[in-house]
Amino acid sequence: MGGSWTESEFGSEVTELTKQYKAKEIGRRQFMKRLGAAGIGVAAAASILAACGDDEEPEAAPATTQAAAATTTTAAMADTDEAPATTQAMEDTETAEPEMMGPVVGGTLREGYNRDVSKHDPLTTNWYDPAFFAIYEAILSNDPSGATVPQFASGFSGSDDGLEYRFTIPDGKLSHSGGTINAEMVAEFYRSIQQYSFIAGLAAPVDTYEADGSDVVMKMKNPWVGALGPHKTGYWRIVNINTWKEHSVNEDGSLNAGSTYGTELVDGTGPFTHEEWVPGSHVLVKRWDAYPGSLTPFFENKGTAYLDAIRWTVITEAGQRATQLENGDIDTLINPAHQDIGRLESNSDLTVIRHPEWSGYHLAMNRDYAEYFGDRLTRQGLSHALDREGMVQAILFGNGAPTYGPFPTTDRNYEPAVEQFNQFDIDLANQKLDRAGWVRGGDGVRERDGVRFEFRYLVEDETVQKSVAEAVQAQFANVGVQANLDVVDRALAFEQQSGPGRDAVEMSLFFWLWPIPLDVLILFGGSQFIPVPNFSHAVEPRVDDAIASWQTSANETQAQAAASQFQLAWAEELPFIPIMNQNATFVHNNKVHGWQPFVWNLYPYYNDTWIEA
Questions:
Q1: Strand partners, 213
Q2: What are the average pLDDT values for consecutive 10-residue runs of the chain, which has 613 residues?
Q3: 77 - beta bridge partners?
Q4: Cβ-contact 518, 490 below 8 angstroms
């Protein structure tokens, strides 16, 4: 870098640190410690010091192993109007500190997880958890800058006409069972996703996958700007397809409903092996000593993992998460209670990382209960009854934002015009419900055509989701609608939302999490995805037309137009009622190194992670 650097390279946090260092507000040792906490590597730190007029080598080499969320999240959202909130709690004293050591091999990382765990099967799971990033590799990944880079593949390319992509599978790629994974097996795995996975619609413009020597060839139905995105996610993480088929597919080609793949047996490709899966309790993985090594460019550790094992503890009660971290029961934590974040940030033994999350809370309304949700005017009346900003402040403690359309406001394709819809307005809510024919009864609950506006309302048993559901229930009551809350465990929630017709629950709260909102929301809003995961059983021609436009978008201009069309149709027609999204929050004890969540991936990787002895 020639002894100079710019804010665009490292982000505003490093710029501010440098100003403090030059002004002698912090000492050199503290400056280096903070650079390390911000994920700045030794070479980059030396360059920054040189630019500050200090050419000495760093005394204490920063222990982090890749660009940190603090810098990458700022860069990631550079083309939005709102900078992400990223904070890191760091040591603020000039007292003597131990010399930083190199990576230590051994130990079990104990991680707190804010949800119940899903089975470790990319093809049939209904959710993917952090363990997927340890057990499996994807063919591609996002690096800290958001760029697409190889992971399981050694390289990739696309044709000029956008109709073909190639991924090179190098020799020597193995699975946990010792089987060799070649291009034909990867192609067959992808074809199996098309055949068996409910999530296959995320990549609907893909025609087929074939093997050509050591290349997997992805052939498209039409050029599509989003072709690579789904292949980086958990549902496309590569399994040994021979093992999977042996356990998961019957002789007639149907899925084996009794398969234990993903619960008792996993044949993955990542640096850790599946050991224990106990819903409601924990997941355990162990280091795979035969791991053939990583091709991921931004990993510093290209060989076997440093950690002996990782254990994710299920902590669905939000109030217990921070306490377990502070007490030393866990080492890292995903999404503490929002009210505890400030306290954790003030703890010098911890590092807190926050960035925008591609997520949202929304309400599914089963249209097969047409007496309640069949008309747009009623859905709009319900939507206007919700004080979204109030819920963000009361439930998320400001750590999020209201959503008036399907996308979070920080998404690159966000359409601000959705904000003309779904604003909180009790008078308007009552007017629309009145116009829809709903009349208040003697007890204050509305009726229409002899049907009382009272229904079952399902929510997953997790603290924040329950708080959101309770707030919605209370606000519906204000406009004469009685939603009878039913709190169930995660597995039952999916089951009771997923039935056909009136076998599915009337209304449910759903929290979605996905790095490409437009892709996943297509599955909720598209009529071809009834009953799963279009839990509303909604058929909206405007939404379907926007989906078709997105899946034939060959460039960014077309993609933005389709995204805007989709959001505006959603905000007005309301296949689901949007509520709000939250920021992602990750916390680790400072004895943990190389655990670096960043905005482009839902979860951190664990190849570089190690714990001080």
A1: none
A2: 40 63 58 58 51 44 32 32 39 40 94 96 96 98 96 98 98 96 98 96 97 98 98 97 98 96 98 98 98 97 98 97 98 97 97 94 98 98 98 97 96 96 98 98 97 98 96 98 97 95 98 93 96 97 98 97 98 98 97 95 97 93
A3: none
A4: no
**Position 232, amino acid:** K
The helix or strand, by DSSP H or E, that contains position 457, with its residue range, turns out to be strand 454-460
3-class SS letters over 336-404: CCHHHHHHHHCCCCEEEEEEECCEEEEEEECCCCHHHHCCHHHHHHHHHCCCHHHHHHHHCCCCEEECC
Query: 92 to each of 10, 15, 95, 210, how far by Cα in Å?
Result: 21, 18, 9, 56
Beta-carbon neighbour count of residue 246 at 10 Å?
14
Cis-peptide, bond into residue 531, ω within 30° of zero? yes
255 is written with which tokens? 């899925």
- 541 by Cβ neighbours in 10 Å (0-12 / 13-18 / 19+) ranks as exposed
Q: Both tokens of residue 497? A: 């939302």
How many residues are given for the chain?
A: 613
The answer for residues whose C-beta is within 8 angstroms of residue 288's C-beta and 6 or more apart is: 176, 270, 271, 272, 273, 304, 305
Token digits for 192? 């199996």
Distance, in Å, from the CA atom of 297 to the CA atom of 302, rounded to the nearest integer, reads 9
Q: Answer for the pair 84, 357: CB distance below 8 angstroms, yes or no.
A: no
